[in-house]
Design a protein that fits this description.
CATH topology: TIM Barrel
Structural class: alpha/beta
Bound molecules: 2-phosphoglycolic acid
CATH superfamily: Aldolase class I
Order of helices and strands: EHEHEHEHHEHHHEHHEHEH
Shape: globular
CATH architecture: Alpha-Beta Barrel
Length: 258
Amino acid sequence: MANNIKYKNMKQKIVAGNWKMNTNLQEGKDLSVDIIRSVKNDDVKVIIIPPFTHLSNIINETNNSFVSIGAQNCAAYEKGAYTGEVSAEMLKSIGIEYVLIGHSERRAYFNETNEILKQKLDIALKNQLLPIFCCGEMLEERNSNNHFSVVKQQLKESLFHLKNYDLIKLIIAYEPVWAIGTGLTASPKQAEEMHAFIRKVIQEQYGNDIANNISILYGGSCKPTNAKELFSNPNVDGGLIGGAALNANDFVGIINSF
Ligand code: PGA
């Protein structure tokens, strides 16, 4: 079965910038132009993930560049009376390639459960969006030594219903909640240990081919000063960047850390 799969998203070096709820339209356009102008490393897949309101404009700004565009979220429903929601089909229709699913801020502030994230993944994939699925433990969970089981549960409950040919389209981002926006970074050893664990969990469920070809990104206070050490680990395939993605120099510095 695994041999028949086309590895659309074959393991690659990836740096994705999640702008969260930052920048007005002009600032966002300027930032995307600065990033395109400064990136020299075409060995790395660069994804920028601006707010919804900027997406169409930024797609125009980045047209014909090597930068791909993602959205920060999509609805768990196809269409209809869901005021304020944005559907996967809408995103696809304006040329979006990627969508973040399960960011810890969505889990914490908008009550997104593993079950809701499972629905979002299905809808995203049905609409040919490539999901960047975020997982990661809270500080109490790490302190009580439950971090591996929490992450395994997140993967199991949201992903494991997927068939091989869909699972391989995903990018996984390990983002320990205690490291997001706090200035605390997982040590390279902590990151590698969890990334190797995630790959093993995927290998047990989906086999070697899939496990070896899926990209696993680290996120949580990743900066130009620590990216090199993090990315030099064999199971860390890149980063999902928040704060440092809002400054073109810092973001490009992280891309150049490979
Ligand atoms: P941070 O955020 O880099 O600001 O810690 C990462 C993220 O939330 O994706």
